[in-house]
Specification:
The complex is a heterodimer.
Chain A lengths: L1 H9 L2 H14 L1 H27 L1 E2 L2 E2 H32 L2 H6 L5 H29 L11 H22 L5 H15 L12 H7 L3 H14 L6 H27 L2
Helix pairs in contact in A: 2-6, 3-4, 3-6, 4-6, 4-7, 4-10, 6-7, 6-11, 7-10, 7-11, 10-11
Chain B lengths: L4 E10 L2 E11 L4 E5 L6 H9 L6 E6 L2 E2 L4 H5 L2 E4 L11 H11 L9 H9 L15 H11 L7 E5 L7 H16 L3 E6 L2 H7 L2 E6 L2 E6 L1 H8 L3 E6 L3 H6 L8 E5 L2 E6 L2 H9 L5 E6 L2 H9 L6
The chains are: A mainly alpha, B alpha/beta.
Chain lengths: 259, 304
């Protein structure tokens, strides 16, 4: 924990972040298309198609409800993909991390650089969906800018967890467990597509432990101009996931690479 | 003169088995120090310990005056590493590889910085500055890996099997580059399987096996200490008859390996003359070399 904080302040991680950003810039075209095109399609299809049956949800158009959930889901997906597939490639296949460890960088610098990079991509995807949502009239009021720091923090939380998976994985196939057993249920039961009120009590209680639920609890009112409640709790849970994920990932990667 | 590396009682165990077992090493400034040993001898683990990437289970280790692994980060500022697998960044061009690697040291290099030009010249890759890594040959990649290891102007460069898998021309160029580094006053530590490479490059070398250092010295010292001046390799249908004749008074020591008899002698001319008088013998007379020392110390059985 303290080593992590010291590495954060030393800012050597910025070199790792910039390396990833430079690689991304080369492939930005198709990545951006995916970032804008896909959520736009889903939002239009589900929002209007399903929305015409559903009508209003929690006092708003279904498409407005869905858009705020999509922002958070996209943050989760983007950080998770970067934190497992891309990070694993750099760790185990290309040995990019090994080369970094021959320099004054250490495991915590790499870890923070990777996590912040994944979170930055998350932030970018959130911005794109916000823009799309704005044109679909699903954004109400200037407080929407507070979605950005929430997206970044949530991105770090999911990147931390993803890097834990990367640290213990022996192959790409392993990540299917993570996606199928953890992320997909989280996507379905955190209030992205429908409000949790109608679910059984047990499901609601379980959902309250998930970081995505808390991200949505913050992002939805921020986007729709409603009063935000329980800020400390929601931020606290997300922050807890950040710290737990990064600390554990740091420990596991250290153990894996420094045999 | 303060040693560049000083290790005492260095030990590393995996699953209760000592892979490196009480290694003592001293590497002096400006020398090229070689680590030789069969597969699994503990060379790579020893190197990883020097880099601070494998925490030793016992012993003391100082590299460039810093305690390792505790002060590894500070030490690595003055260290260059050329790994066996090159691990260049496949997403970048040649120049981007150099610039990105420099950024890990906190060094900002513009695309046309004089250091970039110098490093490209060291790698002889001026014409490939904008090429992707996958377009490079094995030798080019290794040269780039060496140039990359120099971005921070290191005092010590550690190379793990620098010419493994390269063709003779590519190896020659690598050797020239490494000699140039030595002439600039840098210290080199390398592992290798190639005896000719060790003999050409290394001022001193250590022969390792089963996690321990068997002997240390200059190539000439090691040969003199362990082997007679010449080796005559004898084979052919007449070998048994020659042995039965008992005409081996010039042979100080011999060793039968399969169909070949290795005769160690200080009187190679007399021995060769004696061999000429027999029929059905083929022989090769040559000065003793490092390979003879290596095989004597580590044995001839296969390591797989």
């Amino acid at each position: 924990m303290r080593t992590l904080l010291r590495a954060l302040l030393a800012r050597r991680w910025a070199a790792v972040w910039r390396r990833n950003a430079r690689v991304w810039r080369r492939l930005a075209g198709p990545a951006l298309l995916g970032n804008i095109g896909e959520p736009l399609l889903y939002l239009l299809a589900l929002g209007y198609g399903l929305g015409s049956f559903v009508g209003e949800v929690e006092g708003m158009d279904y498409i407005t409800f869905l858009a705020s959930g999509f922002v958070c889901a996209s943050v989760m997906n983007t950080a998770s993909f970067e934190g497992v597939y891309s990070a694993y490639t750099r760790m185990a296949v290309q040995e990019t991390w090994t080369a970094m460890l021959y320099t004054p960088l250490d495991v915590h610098d790499i870890l923070l650089g990777e996590a912040f990079w994944a979170a930055s991509k998350s932030l970018l995807s959130a911005v794109f969906i916000l823009v799309v949502a704005y044109f679909l009239d699903a954004v109400h009021g200037w407080q929407v800018v507070w979605v950005l720091p929430v997206a970044l923090l949530t991105g770090v939380a999911f990147a931390g967890m993803a890097l834990v998976m990367t640290a213990i994985s022996r192959s790409y196939d392993f990540f299917l467990y993570y996606f199928t057993l953890l992320l997909t249920p989280m996507l379905l039961f955190s209030g992205v597509f429908f409000p949790l009120d109608g679910m059984p009590e047990a499901v609601q209680q379980a959902a309250a432990l998930l970081p995505l639920t808390h991200a949505i609890e913050l992002v939805r009112p921020l986007m729709t101009g409603q009063p935000v409640t329980g800020i400390a709790l929601h931020l606290g849970v997300i922050l807890l996931y950040c710290m737990a994920g990064l600390t554990l990932a740091g420990h596991l990667i250290q153990r894996r690479l420094f045999r | 003169m303060q040693p560049i590396v000083s290790a005492r009682g260095l030990t590393k165990c995996y699953d209760g088995q000592a892979v490196v077992d009480g290694v003592a090493l001293e590497v002096l400034p400006g020398e090229c120090f070689g680590l030789l040993g069969p597969n699994g001898a503990g060379k790579t683990t020893t190197l990883r310990m020097l880099l601070g990437m494998t925490p030793p289970d016992g012993g003391e280790l100082q590299v460039l005056g810093y305690a390792i692994p505790e002060q590894g980060r500070v030490m690595r500022r003055q260290l260059g590493v050329v790994a066996q697998q090159d691990n260049l960044d496949p997403d970048f061009t040649v120049v981007e590889n150099l610039r990105t690697y420099a950024s890990y040291f906190g060094i900002k290099l513009g695309e046309h910085h004089p250091l970039i030009r110098k490093l490209l010249a060291i790698a002889s890759l001026e014409h490939k500055a904008g090429a992707r890594i996958e377009e490079l040959s094995g030798g080019m990649k290794r040269r780039l890996a060496i140039a990359r290891a120099l971005v921070n102007d290191p005092q010590l460069v550690i190379l793990d099997e620098p010419t493994t898998g390269l063709d003779p021309q590519a190896r020659q160029i690598i050797w020239q580059r490494l000699r140039a580094l030595l002439n600039e006053g840098r210290t080199l530590i390398l592992t290798t399987h190639y005896m000719d490479e060790a003999q050409r490059l290394c001022d001193r070398l250590a022969i390792m096996d089963h996690g321990a250092i068997l002997d240390v010295g200059s190539p000439t010292e090691l040969i003199e200490r362990h082997i007679e001046s010449h080796v005559v390799e004898v084979h052919g249908p007449g070998l048994q008859r020659w042995l039965d004749a008992g005409d081996g008074r010039w042979v100080l020591r011999s060793e039968r390996v399969g169909e070949t008899l290795f005769c160690y002698t200080d009187h190679e001319r007399e021995l060769v003359e004696a061999l000429c008088e027999h029929q059905g013998l083929h022989y090769l007379s040559r000065p003793a070399d490092l390979e003879d020392v290596f095989l004597k110390l580590t044995g001839r059985e296969l390591r797989e």
